[in-house]
Fold this sequence. Notes:
By secondary structure, this protein is an alpha+beta fold.
Amino acid sequence: QANAVLTANGYVVAQIQAAVASKGTGRLEFLGVEEGDRGKKGTIIARLEEQDVLAAVRQAEANLGVAQADYQDARLTLERQQRLHASNLSSQAELDAAQARFARVEATIRYAQASVSAAEVALENTRIRAPFDGTVLTKYADVGEVVAPFASSANSRGAVVTMADMNSLQVEADVSESNIIRVRPGQPCEITLDAYPEKRYPG
């Protein structure tokens, strides 16, 4: 310290850190991490109750199946009316009706596909995944508690856990304006932590 140009106090902070929350609202059904646990990016660390969302997915898939079955019938009917009309065995009105039905069935399929996609997104929103490889710092919620994206109620939680990438740790130190002239880019420094005073880290 006698040879030190400047001594400053600061904190060790993670540059990559996130409060991991749910996109949906519901009761927490599963929490697979504790404080200090490591999580891999994309793995499910928590899950909300999903029975009602699963039912919506199955219903949307069933509606899509019905629409696809109607599509085969409408396509065959249209092809048959086109052949009959070409042979002057059916009227223009019958052909127009077959074409209109085929177009309606196509639109129904697109709507059913969109409904399946929306239900699958809602299902994914019940699953809380790790946003990056990191360590769980703090746990805010427990199984059975209500989780909401923007917790406005005293009975609900916003973030489920806080995670940080421990490979992104840096020391942030405060230097007063009067001493800033002593600091220059690339200047070596020595870091000592209160928790491990006998160990010194180069910086």
